[in-house]
Amino acid sequence: MSGISGMSGTRDDGLGRAAGWGWFLAWLLVGACAGIGLAAILTVGAAFVVLAAVAAVFLLRSGPGRAVVGGVSGVALPLFYLAYLNRGGPGEVCHAVPGGQSCTDEYMPVPFLVAGALVLVAGCVIHVMTGRRGRAGRVSGN
Q: CA 41, 78, 37: angle at the middle one, nearest 5?
């Protein structure tokens, strides 16, 4: 009875949970790749979108379906990067460069940061809730 925990008769799924988070992180990377691809569609974005699609097909065939919400959380990474790039905004921001200065218009970073945090947390919460629902079904099904 090495895989049984206590009196409940349920399988000790500590390794199962870790594997579930591994699949979630794999989907997070797919979502990040797709988000970057869509943000940069006019330059290198098409390559990122194709890479994300290929990885998604692989993950759909081999991983648990509930981990797909990691793709939603993955969209947070490009949003965090946009917040970082606009950290000096809003308005025109100038930096000294050899021989003068370089100025760019930047947006307010807070909306990107808030949207990224909301998307990241929403995906994680959904992943945890679906994992609990799955474990509760296994316990009551025994």
A: 20
pLDDT digit string, tens, across residues 39-53: 888 888 899 999 999
Report the alpha-carbon distance of residue 111 to residue 59 in Å, rounded: 31
3-state secondary structure of 98: coil
Tell me the backbone φ, ψ of residue 96, rounded to 5 degrees.
-75, 135
- Which residue, 137, 85, 94, is CA-closest to 116? 85
- Angstrom distances, CA of residue 49 to CA of 89, 100, 112, 127: 29, 38, 21, 24
Let me know: does 23 contact 63? Beta carbons within 8 Å: yes
Domain map of the chain by residue range? 9-141
